[in-house]
Design goal:
heterodimer; A: about 110 residues; mainly beta; B: mainly beta; 4-stranded antiparallel sheet; about 0% helix; globular
């Protein structure tokens, strides 16, 4: 199985900050990496698919990059509604594992 | 607009079978470009991929659950289902159904989730 790790596990930030979350795969997954946002009590929502493709309706302040084993989710200017937990997921090979999550809270 | 809704018992006894159904409304489950999947989230923990299935019957299961797991599609009812046998407290979680696009890929549409507790 492909193992996914994320760093940091949590971070505190202010509105307007630029935030970067890293996801690493235990083996090469090409660009088959997706990012989700989850708020408490809600279902996750896809933000980025295929490492860098912005899902329709997602604000352009979210961006993704990377390929192979190392990936990044960036929020260019954090907004109040962005405080949430973010998960990466590989869709390269089954089982399509999720990372452990990164919680972004208010500083 | 297509929506997904999970349904099933909220409490299951240890060693019994957990059965959930996901009803697809506002669209057809009989799509060649979508897969239908299940994800769970134990209380206070992260997301766990369970498995996915195409309308044509191709399945992908988490190997750690495969011996206990069945995912099936009922196109006549526009539903897909999950059955997990011999459950233990470790199977207590919020269970989400979801749709993925183009294959067992990213999940672009999710149900709201349903909490299933395994307890006697």
């Amino acid at each position: 199985d492909i193992q996914m790790t994320q760093s940091p596990s949590s971070l505190s930030a202010s509105v307007g900050d630029r935030v970067t979350i890293t996801c690493r795969a235990s083996q090469n997954i090409s660009s088959d990496l997706n990012w989700y946002q989850q708020k408490p009590g809600k279902a996750p929502k896809v933000l980025i698919y295929g490492a860098s493709n912005l899902q329709s309706g997602v604000p352009s302040r979210f961006s993704g990059s990377g390929s192979g084993t190392d990936f990044t989710l960036t929020v260019s200017s954090l907004q109040p509604e962005d405080f949430a937990t973010y998960y990466c997921q590989q869709s390269y090979s089954s089982p399509f594992t999720f990372g452990p999550g990164t919680t972004v809270d208010i500083k | 607009q297509l929506q997904l809704q999970e349904s099933g018992p909220g409490l299951v006894k240890p060693s019994e079978t957990l059965s959930l159904t996901c009803t697809v409304s506002g669209g057809s489950i009989s799509s060649s470009i979508h897969y239908w999947g299940w994800i769970r989230q134990p209380p206070g923990k992260g997301l766990e991929w369970i498995g996915s299935m195409s309308y044509s019957g191709k399945t992908y299961y988490d190997p750690s659950l495969k011996s206990r797991l069945t995912i099936s599609v009922d196109s006549s009812k526009n539903q897909f289902s999950l059955k997990l046998t011999s459950v233990t407290a470790a199977d207590t979680a919020v269970y989400f159904c979801a749709r993925s696009f183009g294959g067992p890929d990213y999940f672009d549409l999710w149900g709201q989730g349903t909490l299933v507790t395994v307890s006697s």
